């Protein structure tokens, strides 16, 4: 065999060796690709300073995070857009539905920005408050329907009175599945939305498509708190807002469902500050904005859910807003920048 033949054989052997020998540096970096998505923005930024490779991995994680606030929990990605300062995204734990703090406190971290996109198989979306169901003496769920096509069926017991601010749907104790026509608020976000940064209001939720009047937009998901816990957390948030140099915003919403007599009968506290969904970005507008809220009760579920619907036609690139309330208890309330002609000048503030 001539010299050419020998060289070819050597090259072939070398190629084989390269394939067989593990590449420790490559495996090491692959591990970082899996570990870094679990870090908070501060931790990620510290790690990114330690080497060029980690800088590049952190950068791609940041890009992926800013391309979808919902971490694939929703049907469509919900990107962040910021042309006013250097915040690429807002950091929080995502839940597509209401959860109890006893569950959410087990989730100190949530992977966000992994290199591959898979539907999240995260236990957090399996522990919704909907698990809190009404049962009979034998422990069996009650008050569901056994229709096959509830939307079409006359007499489905779950299709109750839908008023201006209340609605009823099939729920956890019904025979029908998620595709049922009477579960329109239970399938997550199905409109194109985006989160846009404003110099004065912080992040805000925007329409990224035309929305017809009356469409379901999203629910207000977060931790459902006792009133005592809500009061404690609000005090903590007020302290953080006044002391932190980096504009801290909370998203604790108090809902009161009133009896016809006008007396409050049910109070629900939903905190989306640490654990929440896209609704935590909806800003206030003094003119009522373009979203209306409904308390949606699902058959068999103990607690209603707060859902947002478009109250009129909404154009692409319009900000989605609603009124946080009418009461302004604080004389030194936060300045309002809603820009409406009837702006009060300050944001609503209630006693939590
Ligand atoms: C539920 S969060 C809404 C999202 C928030 N902008 C953010 O960046 O996360 C409520 C906070 O947003 C800000 N905000 C909401 N509506 C506003 C408005 N009309 N004018 C000024 N700030 C507003 C206030 O800081 C308020 O405490």
UniProtKB/TrEMBL annotation:
Question: Where does the Post-SET domain lie?
Answer: 332-348
Cellular component GO terms, alphabetically?
chromosome; nucleus
**UniProt-listed InterPro entries:** AWS_dom, H3K9_Histone-Lys_N-MTase, Post-SET_dom, SET_dom, SET_dom_sf
All residue ranges annotated as the SET domain in the record: 191-325
Q: Where in the cell is it found?
A: Chromosome; Nucleus
Instruction: Provide the residue span(s) of the region labelled Disordered.
Output: 1-21
Its GO biological process terms? methylation
Keywords, comma-separated and alphabetical: Chromosome, Metal-binding, Methyltransferase, Nucleus, S-adenosyl-L-methionine, Transferase, Zinc
Q: Which domain of life is it from?
A: Eukaryota
Q: Which residues form a coiled coil?
A: none
> Which portions of the chain have biased composition (kind: Basic and acidic residues)?
8-20
GO molecular function list? histone methyltransferase activity; metal ion binding
Q: Which residues form the signal peptide?
A: none
Q: What is this protein identified as?
A: Histone-lysine N-methyltransferase SUVR3
The answer to whether UniProt assigns keyword Nucleus to this entry is yes
* One Pfam entry name: SET
């Amino acid at each position: 065999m001539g010299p050419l033949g020998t060289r070819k054989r050597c090259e072939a052997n070398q190629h084989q060796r390269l394939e067989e020998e593990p590449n420790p540096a490559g495996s090491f970096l692959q591990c970082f690709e899996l570990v870094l998505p679990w870090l908070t923005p501060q931790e990620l930024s510290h790690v990114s300073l330690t080497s060029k490779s980690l800088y590049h991995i952190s950068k791609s994680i940041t890009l992926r995070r800013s391309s979808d606030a919902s971490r694939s929990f929703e049907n469509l990605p919900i990107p962040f857009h910021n042309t006013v300062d250097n915040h690429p995204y807002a950091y929080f734990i995502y839940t597509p539905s209401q959860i109890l703090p006893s569950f959410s406190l087990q989730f100190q971290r949530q992977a966000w920005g992994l290199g591959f996109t898979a539907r999240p198989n995260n236990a957090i979306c399996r522990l919704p408050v909907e698990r809190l169901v009404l049962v009979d003496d034998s422990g069996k769920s009650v008050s569901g329907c056994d229709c096959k096509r509830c939307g079409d069926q006359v007499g489905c017991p779950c299709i109750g009175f839908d008023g201006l601010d209340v609605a009823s749907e099939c729920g956890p104790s019904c025979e029908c599945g998620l595709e049922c026509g009477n579960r329109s608020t239970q399938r997550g976000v199905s409109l194109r939305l985006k989160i846009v940064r404003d110099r004065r209001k912080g992040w805000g939720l925007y329409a990224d498509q035309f929305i017809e009047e009356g469409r379901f937009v999203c629910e207000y998901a977060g931790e459902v708190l006792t009133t005592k816990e809500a009061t404690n957390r609000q005090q903590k948030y007020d302290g953080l807002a006044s002391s932190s140099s980096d504009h801290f915003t909370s998203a604790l919403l108090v809902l009161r469902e009133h009896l016809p007599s006008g007396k409050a009968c049910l109070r629900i506290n939903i905190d989306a500050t640490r654990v929440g969904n896209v609704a935590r970005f909806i800003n206030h507008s003094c003119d009522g904005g373009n979203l209306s809220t409904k308390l949606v009760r699902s058959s068999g579920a103990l607690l209603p859910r707060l859902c947002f619907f478009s109250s009129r036609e909404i154009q692409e690139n319009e900000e989605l807003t609603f009124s946080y309330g009418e009461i302004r208890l604080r004389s030194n309330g936060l300045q309002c920048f809603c820009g409406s002609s009837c702006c009060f000048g300050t944001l609503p503030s209630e006693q939590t």
